[in-house]
Predict the structure.
Amino acid sequence: MTTHTKEDLRANLKGSFFMVAAMAGFAVEDTFLKAASTTIPVGQIMIVFGLGGALLFACAARLKNERLYSPDVMSRPMRVRAFFEITGRLFYVLALALTPLSAATVILQATPIVVVAGAALVFGETVGWRRWGAIIIGLLGVVVIIQPGAEGFSMLSILAVLGMLGFAGRDLASRAAPASLSALILGLYGFLSVAVAGLLFAIWDRAAFVSPGIPAWLCLLGAVLAGVLSYACLMKAMRTGEVSAVTPFRYTRLIFGVGLGVVLFGERLDLSMLAGCALIVLSGLFILWRGKKAKAQG
């Protein structure tokens, strides 16, 4: 049985605080991006957002005397990570622009579930039948939300699913990224990937770029600052306290994202949304609990 000292408990509490702050910040980032999409083409938003975030991460890395480029940046895991980053960001931003913020936020919460499944399939990690069952239940929660075949089904809801799968692939690729690359460098190239995704979409979409007004520029600036600060809080959370203690607080993003969607955009929650949300969260928490228990027994 693991005994926690006061220092451990304090570290877990601190890490949990940073995780909640990160999730609140990501929800604010999503809100700013959705607001900006009402007047600015999606491709342009992603280019500005990506370059702005990359600039801030580059400055932070240089302040720590870190090299912005090394051969490891072009390693196979990093190329795979860039592909999934581009895919995840592109489809998720499209989901934010075209679907309710609350729905996109809830579907995104299935990312850790898919990561566990991917870790078993790709990296050969041991996942027992109980966690596989929870994975299936969590994915069923996504199906309940998007309601394929129902009268109210919209193909646009698939955008959030594709974004979620892209982020899961990115997280898996990050596990294989060279250890020589710091979190700041990963953040730098992650945001550069967003800009590349925006450029590719802008070429395909052919929507004319616009000259944003002050409110739109403030939304973009807010999204960049919220995204970078949230990423920093996330990295701090994962390095403060036990991962199993702070990771469950990822689901607080649901509270912030759904709350902002309801308050700012007048979105409504139906029964299928609530049921799917419950399935995703409960299965995710069960997977975390079983993983911790299996590790303790091993």
Notes: The longest helix spans residues 6-36. The CA atoms of residues 111 and 168 lie 5 Å apart.
